[in-house]
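tool=predict chain=A
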Amino acid sequence: MTKKDKTAANQTNQKAGQQEQNFPVLYNQIVPLLKNLHKDLKLQNNQKFDFAANMNAVPIVMQELPMAAKFFPIVFTADEPITMLAVLGIRKEQNLFVDENGDWQANSYVPTYIRRYPFFIAKPDENSEPIICIDDTSPFFSPDGDVALFKDGTPTDELNRIMDFARNYEQQLKWTNEFVQALSEKDMLENQRASFKEGEDVKANVDGFKAISRPKFDDLDGETLKEWLGKNWLDASILHQASGSNFDSLWRMDRKRNG
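tool=predict ok
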């Protein structure tokens, strides 16, 4: 690695660090992917999901809702910045969709945020080009891995596919943030609680999240409905509201695993 490459890497690391002073969930370290520095890096095949086993909620994007809403309750964070989440478990630091062997529950959806790991897109500011980054502490990477990221200094087809996937996710995240912003501007979100009973006894509560107010949704005027329909925000709102029934299946999964 030349002195120039090292300087560029340090500058990029500094900018990325300014953007993500607290690394996003799952990530222990975020560094730019550089061909000179990472030319021998390879990905391991047959990856497990142990890395997500302690994740009881995950950011979700609007384009995932048709699949995600079949399996997870979709909620919004109570605190700013408001983020749309898929709930993966009832208890803190327990993902009910990852078993003791690190396998994801068969025939259920794996959120894009989790499938993207250990790659990441950093954008230090609005005028900067997106930077493809990695969590270089991830066990998915190894010089002895199965899938090369570079060949003769050029990204492989697999790396190009991964980069396209990561860039598409960032675009979808931007559209999702616009949807969330619209909900906030219309004051559509309200604090909610999910309670789980056995007979008349409340056994557990999940709170600290927001959901769309059904009365406020029903009162949206025709002009807003037309706008939201064209932006797929209407479908997203309906799928979010319908997904609340998945709290019942989560509770059954929790009972089965934890007794």
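The first helix runs from residue 3 to 19. The radius of gyration is 20 Å.
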